[in-house]
Design goal:
Length: 214
C-alpha cells in the first residue's frame, strides 16, 4: 500500500513542466534569441531550485507499507520500521508512528503526507460526527472519515496482519520480543533530496555574489 498526496504531486509536476519549458526557452530560444548571460544563468538556477523543492515536498513524501515493514518517506528523511518494531500508529493532525529506533529507544515520526491543521482536523471530525448521526445504528468508524484517520486505520490493519503471531494466531508483542534480534527501525537522510536543494541553492548564491561583485 502506498499513500501519497495527489495535490502535492500535481503541483510538483506542473512546476516541473513550467521549469523545463522556461529552461528550453532561455537556452534554445523558443520565444526569442537564446541568452547565456549571468542573469539568464541565475534565473535557470532559480528554476532548478524550484524543481528541487517540488521534488522534496511534492514527489518524495509517501507512506509505504509492504509485507516486511512500514516506510515513512518525508522530504529529507526516511524511516523504515519493521511491523514488529512499531508500537502505535495514530491519525490526528498527521499520521504519527511510534517505533523502536536504531539504538533501541522509542522514537516518533510524523508523516508529511496528509498533514492538516488542528482547525481543519476539527472541521473534518465535525463532519464525520454529523454523518455518524445521520447513519445512526450503523457500524461507522468516525476516524475513517478523515484522510489521516483512514490512513492510520489501514496501516493498523496491515500491522495486525504482519506482526508476529502466537500459537493461537493472535498478534502478540511478546512473540516479537522473543526473537533473537529485536526488531528496530532505520532512520536515514535522503542524499538525492538534499542534493536537489543544496546544489542549485549554492550555485544561485554564487551567481548572486558574482553579480554583486561585477
Amino acid at each position: 500500500m502506498t499513500i501519497r498526496s495527489t495535490g502535492g504531486r500535481v503541483a510538483a509536476y506542473a512546476w516541473l513542466a513550467f521549469a523545463v519549458l522556461n529552461l528550453v526557452d532561455l537556452f534554445v530560444g523558443i520565444t526569442g534569441d537564446p541568452d547565456y548571460s549571468l542573469t539568464t544563468v541565475t534565473i535557470a538556477f532559480v528554476l532548478l531550485l524550484g524543481c528541487g523543492i517540488a521534488y522534496t515536498i511534492g514527489l518524495r513524501p509517501a507512506i509505504i507499507g509492504d509485507d516486511e515493514a512500514l516506510t515513512v518517506r518525508n522530504p529529507l528523511r526516511d524511516v523504515r520500521a519493521p511491523w514488529a518494531a512499531i508500537h502505535s500508529i495514530e491519525g490526528k493532525n498527521a499520521v504519527t508512528v511510534r517505533f523502536t529506533g536504531p539504538e533501541g529507544t522509542d522514537l516518533e515520526t510524523r508523516a508529511w503526507v496528509h498533514q492538516t491543521s488542528p482547525r481543519a482536523q476539527a472541521k473534518a471530525e465535525a463532519r464525520a460526527q454529523k454523518q455518524a448521526r445521520k447513519n445512526k445504528g450503523s457500524d461507522l468508524d468516525i476516524r475513517g472519515r478523515t484522510p489521516t484517520g483512514f490512513a492510520a486505520q489501514q496501516l493498523n490493519e496491515m500491522r495486525d496482519r504482519h506482526r508476529p503471531k502466537t500459537k493461537s494466531g493472535a498478534p502478540d508483542k511478546a512473540a516479537a520480543a522473543k526473537t533473537e534480534t529485536p526488531a528496530r527501525a532505520t532512520v536515514t537522510w535522503s542524499l538525492p533530496a538534499i542534493a536537489s536543494l543544496t546544489v542549485p541553492f549554492t550555485a544561485l548564491i554564487a551567481c548572486l555574489i558574482t553579480s554583486l561583485l561585477n
